[in-house]
Amino acid sequence: MNFKTKYFAALMPAVLAFSPAGATRMPIDTPREMPLTLAQVWQKVETNSRAVQIKQLKIESSAEAIKDAKAERLPDLDISGEYARVSNMPVFENGLFHTPSQFPVLHNTYTVAAGAYFNIYNGNKVNLGIDASKTENRIAGEQKKQTVSETKLHAAAYYLDMERSLIFKQLLLQDIAAQEKQLAQIRTLQKNGVILKSDVLRAELKLSRQKLSLVQLDNDLAIANQKLNILIGLPDEQRIDPVEVLKTDSGQTATYQDYLADAGSNAYQIKISEQETELKKLQLRNIRANVAPKIGLFADYKYSYPQILFYPYSANLFGLGFAGVTASFDISSFYHNKHKAKEAKLEVESQEIEHAQTADVIRQQVNEAFLRYKEALNRVEVSKTNVKQATENRRIVNNTYFNQLSLITDLLDADNQLLQTKFDLAAAQIAAQLQYFQLQNVTGKL
User: Fold this and answer.
1) How far is CA 327 from CA 120, 260, 324, 333, in A?
2) What are the angstrom distances between the C-alpha of 322 and each of 22, 120, 333?
3) pLDDT in tens, 38-72
4) Could you list the residue ranges that cross the membrane (predicted)?
5) What is the CA radius of gyration of the chain?
6) Cα–Cα 20 to 30 A to 371, which of 99, 106, 390, 415?
7) At what angle do helices 197-232 and 125-191 cross, to 10 degrees?
């Protein structure tokens, strides 16, 4: 396994942690490249991401639910009409088994009525319903922010993956150019009988492998490009040119306690958990309100023909209205509501435990992300030192080889080590940047 294969095997798990699987190669005929900074990519994420759009619709839906809950404060109005066919009315003056006399009736009746009811008190259930709808709206808002943050992290992973591929490609092209010059020198030595043919073959084999690696890098770039296009709402064939300058010292002055404090006040999961706990408490209060009297104002008025409500009857149109205060109390709610209230109370206690558990998870995630970020920064510094050492080692081995003091394997190994350290440095810088974004995501500041 050569250095390129080893590198990709080591890097892929870190990239796949933020990247959903599945992408196809881009067509060969693509439009002109679109230069984009990471900030511009994130702006497109907030506008075009389907996941974010779904969360936005949920916010709008919950906002309508608040309006609907407030509408419960308005009086209930209704209007009705009725037509009926009245049957004959026999009067059994001599008992059921004797022929009755027929009482004269009007066989058609018509009624038009209107009514109103205005709630005065029902255990404060209307206000509790409004507060519950507002809480659900706040939860939807925090869920959208969380989705935006996570989608930004995915976009950053794809963007940095493209930037890594471009850096690798540039390093590989430079190495290929240097290897071609070196191969020309080796061929000259072979023609002069200084070295064996096997040295030329080994150098040519290495060069062919390097050129094959370019194909793999182009494919990696195309795959990451399409994934990013899908995420930010661009056509699959649109080529993106990452122009962001890597910054591996972002937030270096912040301490673990600073990040922990930020997470405590800004982490989306904690805010969502807080609102879900509040929602459970409102549901408990709403259930307890079932054991409360209901008081309201009512008014009813109707026109009817004929008048057969009161005796004596009249074959004329008449109007009749009622207005007043109504009160009721459901006695059965004392035993029907008992177990519902206990169930709701247990759900509140369960949600409070889940909230504490969420805080524990966030604290652990902040600690892990912080340590990994520091580790990534340290790896960058070590990689810089390795590049310097590999450069010097390659210079020494190059001089000794062409002075017939070392073997071709030593020279090729030195070349591989130098290119590998350059790859490692670029990968470490990419990983440090991505780990910083992960830390920002966990603390709710991405």
Assistant:
1) 10, 54, 10, 15
2) 70, 18, 29
3) 999 999 999 999 999 999 999 999 999 999 999 99
4) none
5) 39
6) 390
7) 160
| Least confident residue range of 18-22, 38-42, 126-130, 317-321 | 18-22
Is 118 part of a structural domain of the chain?
no
Structural domain contains residue 305: no
The pairing of beta strand 108-121 with beta strand 76-85 = antiparallel
β-strands 108-121, 294-305 pairing = antiparallel
Task: Report the distance separating Cα 308 and Cα 316, nearest Å.
Answer: 10
The one-letter amino acid code at 93 reads: E
Residue 45 contacts residue 52 (beta carbons within 8 Å): yes
Could you report the per-residue pLDDT of 5-41, keeping only the tens digit for each?
444 344 444 433 434 333 334 444 445 788 989 999 9
Whether 227 contacts 21, CB under 8 Å: no
276 neighbors 357 (Cβ within 8 angstroms): no
Query: How many structural domains compose the chain?
Result: 1
Task: For residue 213, give the CATH number of its domain.
Answer: 1.20.1600.10
Task: Note whether residue 153 is domain-resident.
Answer: yes
Tell me whether residue 329 is in a domain.
Answer: no
**Token pair of 410 as six digits:** 């030593």
